[in-house]
Amino acid sequence: MVSFERFTLDNGLRVLVHEDPTTPMAVLNILYDVGARDENPDQTGFAHLFEHLMFGGSINIPSYDEPLQRVGGENNAFTSNDITNYYITLPAVNLETAFWLESDRMLSLAFSEKSLEVQRNVVSEEFKQRYLNQPYGDVWLKLRPLAYKDHPYKWATIGKSLKHIEDATIDDVKAFFKKHYNPANAIMVVGGDVQLEEVKRLSEKWFGNIPAIGKSQRNLPAELPQTEARIETVKANVPLDAIYKVFHMPARTDAGYYSADLISDILSRGNSSRLFRNLLKDQKLFSDINAYLTGSLDAGLFVVEGKPLPGISMETAEAAIWAELDRVKSELVSEQELTKVKNKMESTMVFSEMSLLDKAMNLAYFELLGDADQLNSETGKYLAVSAEEIQKQAQSIFRKENSSTLYYLAN
Amino acid sequence: MIDRTVAPSFGQVENIELLKARPIVLGNGLKVFSIAGGEQDLVRIEFIFENIAYTALKPLQAYATNTMLNDGTSELSSSEIADKIDYYGAFLQTDFSNDQSSVTLYSLNKHLSATLPIVKAVISDSIFPQVELDTFIRNQKQKLSVNLEKNDFLSRKIFNSVLFGNTLYGYDTRAEDYDKLTRDQLQEYFSMAYQPENCTVVISGKVTDAALTLIDQLFGASWKGGKVISPNSFNFYRGSGQEHYVEKPEALQSAIRLGKVSINRAHSDFPGFQVLNTILGGYFGSRLMANIREDKGYTYGIGSALVSMKNAGYFFIASEVGAEVCSSAIDEIHKEIEILKTQEVSGQELGLVRNYMLGSMLGGLENAMSHADKFKNIYFSGLGYDYYQNYIKTVKTITPQELLALAKKYLDWAELEKVIVGKKS
């Protein structure tokens, strides 16, 4: 159970406060409701590049990191296809420094040309390090456009190509800031050894006079239902063949999300899971096999990926994956197995409450989903899923015409 | 109106309270340490075994034994072990490091009486079935073939081998060594190493009396050992600071790893060297990051670290940089080291690093498990809690002159081994 209080400033900034007196630390987490899905198709990778620029100095404070480190704090951020999330942890006695820094960069950035030039290079190196200079690193650069034809999930957070990042200009940066970085588009969570009244006072003091700008309306093209199986084959300098199979599945806020998540656990969570047990251990077809969800806000993907052992043909490997998926469709999962994945889910939720930062991030994310209090009913939603719902969900997801398959073959 | 150009006032961290480990000795001599704290009704229980009897003839023996512990006992198959652990929402993991082999259970307290007996079986009655060993060998070789395509992985492997030679610390994993593994080797190592005399148990979280009673029942007098143990002991030659270059013509980036054998935690210079390392490459605002990432844009990340092991410590700097700027990046690293050795750090910068390190230490004590990690750091280095008092005092009081002297003593560019995998510009 993660308790919290909530208030909203006149300019539209939502603030959640989670008091946890067991720690001497404080967390300030700000989620901006903007991600790679909000990018222009000709300027992909921009939300993430912009995240880097948020550390390049703000209108009144030339360096973001230096004053924070000086008070014993640390920070980082991440960008996904859906959101951009910034967080600070610091000794609670120095909480006001976090308010000072975060409010100034919400007010306005410095928009330094030097920062843009350097961060274009840094992000290009990140692109190379994570996507181009790694075996199988570019898989998602290929899978996304295969699975999505309409929705902007068809490009990865890092962007479609290095060129989009290299072409970014300071005017683009300013326009992006103006559109997305304002109080009504943000959710702030303050947690740890903090008091509600003090957080209210500091929020008014530092964020209260940031001008309100209406929340930008999102109007993304919905992905049209897929009607036939898609297949792509690539060859690359990798040591092993690999297969990636993705299916469209319900959005994060859809009731069907929970049964789909449990299906991925039945297939792939822990050493007792079906793919590991049957395909890797017993049938000895794969050296590595996993299933998971992208978990995105709009309709996401159910992913199965594996590396067949040498001598195992792609046809055999793929047939074995289908046999496992078909089994979830044709047979009701046993009470024992369903209880197992639910128990694991329940204990995972308890473990996640041991981290202050995790709690703060989760509160912000669930507030974005609609109501932070839903974080506390999450376990109950998993526990309520029936074997019949799992079967029905599997039947709806695991259809050939709903699948995209990437064969990633060794040269 | 508030003046946003003025930073709010702030304070330095004054007190850092550590939850101290409570020692308990069981009937068979097994050492148990309990670190109790937290609201969530769960515990982490670690069974930590010293690595022993290393021989270059069987380099994977200890690692394979540890990794295959959950692959079957005389009573339970690997799938039965997995089923039980997963059914109770627990996590059972094995971890192999240079000095130790561990088995760690994360469990809700309410299920401990079902999950802990599985750990007992695993550490006292594993049988290493041949069919599981075959699977292990096959899959490990596949994973290795993928890792060998990663420049960063290769650079680490070469670096360890250059520094630590023909010892466990320096072992350079080869596919053919997997083929040489046999059940006999694993059973031999299992019976030598996995006994109470070679084990330390650390329990952290919401530790209840019931949990301690259960530990005593399962791992106390009923767990027999008694075999002679020969702990690993390694010596290392001073390297000659050479360049070790592996060319990858297709590389977009080069992995760089520079470093040398150095002091470990038991040495009185260790805390001061950690301050020095933080300034150089130990945090986001470090000189290496400020120069090579934030000024030049040569890399996504660069860092340095001082690592403490039982028989040695080592210092290293690592990054992946654009292939076309590889030589420039190395030149800049060299410059930063020379500056550390010739110029005193300013009061401004040192003040920042002091506060950063104290805040970071405080923030690193999030729950009983992180307090347990702090305990393990000192316990396995043969140190007491006064180490942390001394560490905090050093961070608060070390002078620019002392840092300059440490840089001269420990950071000789000519002595650093320089591993580069990728392309030099």
Automatic annotation (TrEMBL), chain A:
Keywords: Hydrolase, Metalloprotease, Protease, Zinc. GO terms for biological process: proteolysis. Residues 168-345 form the Peptidase M16 C-terminal domain. Pfam families: Peptidase_M16 (PF00675), Peptidase_M16_C (PF05193). Belongs to the peptidase M16 family. PANTHER family: NARDILYSIN (PTHR43690), PROTEIN YHJJ (PTHR43690:SF17). This is Predicted Zn-dependent peptidase. It comes from Daejeonella lutea.
From TrEMBL, chain B:
InterPro entries: Metalloenz_LuxS/M16 (IPR011249), MPP/UQCRC_Complex (IPR050361), Peptidase_M16_C (IPR007863). Pfam families: Peptidase_M16_C. SUPFAM superfamilies: LuxS/MPP-like metallohydrolase. Residues 180-355 form the Peptidase M16 C-terminal domain. GO terms for molecular function: metal ion binding. This is Predicted Zn-dependent peptidase.
